[in-house]
Amino acid sequence: MDSSEFAVTVSPVIEGIALIRVRGELDGASAPQLVTAVKDTIGEGCEAVHLDLAGLGFMDSAGLSALLAMHRDWSEHDATIVVVKASEPVRRLFELTGVARLLVGPDGLPDPADG
Amino acid sequence: MGDELVKSEALSDSATVAGDAIEMVLPADVRLIRLARLVAGGVGGSADFDVDGVDDLRIAVDEMCTALIESGDGGPLHLHFSVSPDSVEVRGETSASGGATEFEGDRLTLSKQILGVVVDEFDLAASGESIRFRLVKRAPGGLADVR
Protein backbone atom coordinates (compact mmCIF):
# COMPACT_ATOMS: atom_id res chain seq x y z
CA MET A 1 0.00 0.00 0.00
CA ASP A 2 1.24 3.49 -0.86
CA SER A 3 2.35 5.13 2.41
CA SER A 4 0.47 8.28 1.43
CA GLU A 5 -2.77 6.38 0.74
CA PHE A 6 -5.47 7.57 3.07
CA ALA A 7 -7.07 5.00 5.35
CA VAL A 8 -9.39 5.17 8.35
CA THR A 9 -9.73 2.23 10.73
CA VAL A 10 -12.44 2.18 13.38
CA SER A 11 -11.99 -0.08 16.42
CA PRO A 12 -14.96 -1.55 18.27
CA VAL A 13 -16.57 0.76 20.83
CA ILE A 14 -15.49 -0.06 24.40
CA GLU A 15 -17.21 1.65 27.32
CA GLY A 16 -18.56 4.33 25.04
CA ILE A 17 -15.20 5.16 23.47
CA ALA A 18 -14.20 4.41 19.89
CA LEU A 19 -10.63 4.56 18.65
CA ILE A 20 -10.17 5.71 15.06
CA ARG A 21 -6.77 5.32 13.46
CA VAL A 22 -5.97 7.53 10.50
CA ARG A 23 -3.05 7.10 8.13
CA GLY A 24 -1.84 8.67 4.93
CA GLU A 25 -2.39 12.35 4.13
CA LEU A 26 -5.24 14.36 5.63
CA ASP A 27 -6.17 17.18 3.25
CA GLY A 28 -9.19 18.65 1.52
CA ALA A 29 -9.59 15.53 -0.58
CA SER A 30 -9.45 12.98 2.23
CA ALA A 31 -10.98 14.90 5.14
CA PRO A 32 -14.60 14.08 4.12
CA GLN A 33 -13.83 10.37 4.60
CA LEU A 34 -12.75 10.99 8.19
CA VAL A 35 -15.76 13.22 8.86
CA THR A 36 -18.06 10.45 7.62
CA ALA A 37 -16.29 7.79 9.68
CA VAL A 38 -16.62 9.87 12.85
CA LYS A 39 -20.27 10.63 12.12
CA ASP A 40 -21.06 6.96 11.56
CA THR A 41 -19.21 5.92 14.70
CA ILE A 42 -20.97 8.42 16.92
CA GLY A 43 -24.23 7.44 15.28
CA GLU A 44 -23.69 3.93 16.58
CA GLY A 45 -23.90 5.19 20.12
CA CYS A 46 -20.39 5.99 21.29
CA GLU A 47 -19.87 9.10 23.42
CA ALA A 48 -16.25 9.77 22.65
CA VAL A 49 -13.97 9.32 19.69
CA HIS A 50 -10.26 9.03 20.23
CA LEU A 51 -8.24 9.85 17.13
CA ASP A 52 -4.89 8.20 16.57
CA LEU A 53 -3.13 10.39 14.01
CA ALA A 54 0.29 8.79 14.42
CA GLY A 55 0.06 7.39 10.90
CA LEU A 56 -0.45 10.71 9.17
CA GLY A 57 2.49 11.78 7.06
CA PHE A 58 0.89 15.05 6.05
CA MET A 59 -1.90 17.34 7.15
CA ASP A 60 -2.85 20.77 5.87
CA SER A 61 -5.22 23.52 6.99
CA ALA A 62 -8.15 21.74 5.32
CA GLY A 63 -7.50 18.63 7.42
CA LEU A 64 -7.01 20.72 10.53
CA SER A 65 -10.20 22.65 9.83
CA ALA A 66 -12.10 19.36 9.56
CA LEU A 67 -10.78 18.27 12.97
CA LEU A 68 -11.78 21.59 14.53
CA ALA A 69 -15.23 21.53 12.93
CA MET A 70 -15.88 18.00 14.19
CA HIS A 71 -14.70 18.94 17.66
CA ARG A 72 -17.02 21.96 17.71
CA ASP A 73 -20.04 20.31 16.12
CA TRP A 74 -19.99 17.11 18.15
CA SER A 75 -19.36 18.85 21.46
CA GLU A 76 -22.75 20.50 20.91
CA HIS A 77 -24.20 16.98 20.86
CA ASP A 78 -22.38 15.91 24.04
CA ALA A 79 -19.87 13.83 22.15
CA THR A 80 -16.16 14.45 22.51
CA ILE A 81 -13.40 14.11 19.96
CA VAL A 82 -9.88 13.93 21.29
CA VAL A 83 -6.57 13.41 19.52
CA VAL A 84 -4.65 10.81 21.52
CA LYS A 85 -1.66 10.23 19.24
CA ALA A 86 -0.08 12.37 16.54
CA SER A 87 2.83 12.16 14.13
CA GLU A 88 5.48 14.86 13.96
CA PRO A 89 3.89 16.71 11.02
CA VAL A 90 0.58 16.83 12.90
CA ARG A 91 2.22 17.95 16.13
CA ARG A 92 4.03 20.69 14.27
CA LEU A 93 0.81 21.94 12.72
CA PHE A 94 -0.85 21.93 16.15
CA GLU A 95 2.04 24.01 17.50
CA LEU A 96 2.06 26.45 14.59
CA THR A 97 -1.65 27.15 14.92
CA GLY A 98 -2.10 26.78 18.66
CA VAL A 99 -5.03 24.38 18.41
CA ALA A 100 -3.61 21.62 20.58
CA ARG A 101 -5.48 22.98 23.61
CA LEU A 102 -8.75 22.27 21.78
CA LEU A 103 -8.02 18.92 20.23
CA VAL A 104 -5.67 17.22 22.67
CA GLY A 105 -6.78 15.78 25.99
CA PRO A 106 -5.49 16.95 29.39
CA ASP A 107 -2.84 14.25 29.41
CA GLY A 108 -1.23 15.63 26.27
CA LEU A 109 0.25 13.53 23.50
CA PRO A 110 2.67 10.67 24.05
CA ASP A 111 6.08 10.96 22.44
CA PRO A 112 5.94 9.41 18.94
CA ALA A 113 9.01 7.37 19.84
CA ASP A 114 6.92 5.59 22.49
CA GLY A 115 4.67 4.21 19.76
CA MET B 1 -12.26 7.01 -15.96
CA GLY B 2 -10.61 5.99 -12.68
CA ASP B 3 -8.81 8.35 -10.36
CA GLU B 4 -5.44 6.76 -10.97
CA LEU B 5 -5.70 7.31 -14.71
CA VAL B 6 -6.63 10.95 -14.21
CA LYS B 7 -3.58 11.45 -12.02
CA SER B 8 -1.25 9.73 -14.46
CA GLU B 9 -2.41 11.90 -17.31
CA ALA B 10 -1.97 15.01 -15.22
CA LEU B 11 1.60 14.05 -14.40
CA SER B 12 2.73 13.02 -17.85
CA ASP B 13 1.05 15.76 -19.84
CA SER B 14 1.37 18.82 -17.69
CA ALA B 15 4.77 18.94 -16.00
CA THR B 16 7.73 20.26 -17.96
CA VAL B 17 11.25 21.05 -16.85
CA ALA B 18 13.39 23.83 -18.28
CA GLY B 19 16.71 24.57 -16.62
CA ASP B 20 16.05 25.16 -12.95
CA ALA B 21 12.33 25.76 -13.44
CA ILE B 22 9.34 23.46 -13.57
CA GLU B 23 6.02 24.39 -15.10
CA MET B 24 2.95 22.42 -14.13
CA VAL B 25 -0.70 22.63 -15.10
CA LEU B 26 -3.24 20.93 -12.85
CA PRO B 27 -6.99 20.59 -13.15
CA ALA B 28 -8.77 22.41 -10.31
CA ASP B 29 -9.38 19.27 -8.29
CA VAL B 30 -8.39 18.96 -4.64
CA ARG B 31 -7.55 15.30 -5.25
CA LEU B 32 -4.72 16.40 -7.53
CA ILE B 33 -3.05 18.82 -5.13
CA ARG B 34 -0.98 15.89 -3.95
CA LEU B 35 0.79 16.04 -7.32
CA ALA B 36 1.80 19.64 -6.64
CA ARG B 37 3.05 18.52 -3.22
CA LEU B 38 5.06 15.80 -4.92
CA VAL B 39 6.74 18.30 -7.23
CA ALA B 40 7.31 20.70 -4.33
CA GLY B 41 9.04 17.93 -2.42
CA GLY B 42 11.30 17.19 -5.36
CA VAL B 43 12.12 20.85 -5.89
CA GLY B 44 12.87 21.30 -2.19
CA GLY B 45 15.17 18.30 -2.30
CA SER B 46 17.01 19.64 -5.34
CA ALA B 47 17.51 22.92 -3.47
CA ASP B 48 19.24 21.01 -0.67
CA PHE B 49 16.55 21.86 1.86
CA ASP B 50 16.58 19.68 4.95
CA VAL B 51 13.62 17.45 5.79
CA ASP B 52 11.77 20.22 7.61
CA GLY B 53 12.42 22.63 4.76
CA VAL B 54 11.03 20.19 2.23
CA ASP B 55 7.96 19.63 4.42
CA ASP B 56 7.55 23.40 4.71
CA LEU B 57 7.58 23.82 0.94
CA ARG B 58 5.12 20.95 0.46
CA ILE B 59 2.58 22.39 2.88
CA ALA B 60 3.01 25.93 1.54
CA VAL B 61 2.32 24.82 -2.03
CA ASP B 62 -0.62 22.75 -0.81
CA GLU B 63 -2.12 25.73 1.02
CA MET B 64 -1.78 28.01 -1.99
CA CYS B 65 -3.21 25.45 -4.42
CA THR B 66 -6.16 24.91 -2.07
CA ALA B 67 -6.76 28.68 -2.01
CA LEU B 68 -6.66 28.89 -5.80
CA ILE B 69 -9.17 26.06 -6.16
CA GLU B 70 -11.48 27.51 -3.51
CA SER B 71 -11.43 31.01 -4.96
CA GLY B 72 -11.07 30.29 -8.67
CA ASP B 73 -13.74 29.51 -11.21
CA GLY B 74 -12.71 25.92 -11.88
CA GLY B 75 -10.08 26.69 -14.46
CA PRO B 76 -6.72 24.89 -14.33
CA LEU B 77 -3.92 25.87 -11.96
CA HIS B 78 -0.70 27.03 -13.61
CA LEU B 79 2.27 26.49 -11.32
CA HIS B 80 5.86 27.60 -11.79
CA PHE B 81 8.65 26.35 -9.53
CA SER B 82 12.09 27.94 -9.81
CA VAL B 83 15.24 27.17 -7.90
CA SER B 84 18.01 29.69 -7.31
CA PRO B 85 21.21 29.14 -5.31
CA ASP B 86 19.64 30.30 -2.05
CA SER B 87 15.89 29.86 -2.44
CA VAL B 88 12.89 28.33 -4.13
CA GLU B 89 10.18 30.51 -5.59
CA VAL B 90 6.77 29.14 -6.49
CA ARG B 91 4.20 31.09 -8.43
CA GLY B 92 0.69 30.01 -9.27
CA GLU B 93 -2.34 31.34 -11.07
CA THR B 94 -5.88 30.39 -11.95
CA SER B 95 -8.84 32.13 -13.53
CA ALA B 96 -11.58 33.82 -11.52
CA SER B 97 -14.28 35.02 -13.83
CA GLY B 98 -16.49 35.97 -10.89
CA GLY B 99 -14.66 39.26 -10.36
CA ALA B 100 -13.68 40.48 -6.89
CA THR B 101 -12.49 37.76 -4.57
CA GLU B 102 -12.32 38.01 -0.81
CA PHE B 103 -9.86 35.76 0.92
CA GLU B 104 -11.39 35.03 4.29
CA GLY B 105 -12.78 32.23 6.41
CA ASP B 106 -11.59 29.98 9.23
CA ARG B 107 -9.57 27.70 6.99
CA LEU B 108 -7.81 30.59 5.29
CA THR B 109 -7.00 32.11 8.66
CA LEU B 110 -5.31 28.86 9.67
CA SER B 111 -3.64 28.71 6.28
CA LYS B 112 -2.14 32.18 6.67
CA GLN B 113 -0.89 31.27 10.14
CA ILE B 114 0.86 28.24 8.69
CA LEU B 115 2.26 30.09 5.69
CA GLY B 116 3.61 32.82 7.93
CA VAL B 117 5.86 30.28 9.60
CA VAL B 118 6.82 27.83 6.87
CA VAL B 119 7.93 30.26 4.13
CA ASP B 120 9.85 33.52 4.09
CA GLU B 121 7.50 35.40 1.77
CA PHE B 122 4.01 34.75 0.51
CA ASP B 123 1.35 36.69 -1.31
CA LEU B 124 -2.10 35.78 -2.55
CA ALA B 125 -4.05 38.30 -4.58
CA ALA B 126 -6.86 38.65 -7.09
CA SER B 127 -6.29 40.84 -10.10
CA GLY B 128 -8.78 41.29 -12.91
CA GLU B 129 -10.07 37.84 -13.75
CA SER B 130 -7.25 35.86 -12.22
CA ILE B 131 -5.93 34.87 -8.83
CA ARG B 132 -2.21 34.63 -8.28
CA PHE B 133 0.11 33.55 -5.52
CA ARG B 134 3.82 33.78 -4.99
CA LEU B 135 5.87 32.25 -2.22
CA VAL B 136 9.57 32.11 -1.45
CA LYS B 137 11.34 29.63 0.75
CA ARG B 138 15.00 30.35 1.42
CA ALA B 139 17.58 27.68 2.03
CA PRO B 140 18.77 27.11 5.61
CA GLY B 141 21.50 29.57 6.44
CA GLY B 142 20.22 32.09 3.88
CA LEU B 143 20.16 35.76 4.77
CA ALA B 144 16.48 35.80 5.65
CA ASP B 145 16.28 32.40 7.30
CA VAL B 146 14.53 32.86 10.60
CA ARG B 147 14.07 29.28 11.80
Topology, element by element:
The complex is a heterodimer of chains A (115) and B (147).
Chain A: E1 7-10, E2 17-26, H1 31-43, E3 48-59, H2 61-75, E4 80-86, H3 88-97, H4 100-103
Parallel strand pairs in A: 2-3, 3-4
Antiparallel strand pairs in A: 1-2
Chain B: H1 3-14, E1 15-18, E2 21-26, H2 33-46, H3 51-71, E3 77-84, E4 87-95, H4 106-118, E5 121-127, E6 130-138
Antiparallel strand pairs in B: 1-2, 2-3, 3-4, 4-6, 5-6
Notes on the protein architecture:
- The complex is a heterodimer of chains A (115) and B (147).
- Chain A is an alpha/beta fold and 115 residues long.
- Chain A has helices at 31-43, 61-75, 88-97, 100-103; strands at 7-10, 17-26, 48-59, 80-86.
- Chain A has a 4-stranded mixed sheet with strand order 1-2-3-4, covered by helices on one side.
- In chain A, a hairpin with a 6-residue loop joins β1 (7-10) and β2.
- Chain A is globular, with a radius of gyration of 13 Å.
- The mean pLDDT of chain A is 91.
- Chain B has a 6-stranded antiparallel sheet.
- Chain B starts with a helix and ends in a 9-residue tail after the last strand.
- Chain B is an alpha+beta fold.
- Chain B has helices at 3-14, 33-46, 51-71, 106-118; strands spanning 15-18, 21-26, 77-84, 87-95, 121-127, 130-138.
- Chain B contains 4 helices and 6 strands, in the order αββααββαββ.
- The chains are: A alpha/beta (115), B alpha+beta (147).
- At the A-B interface, α2 and α3 of A face α2, α3 and α4 of B.
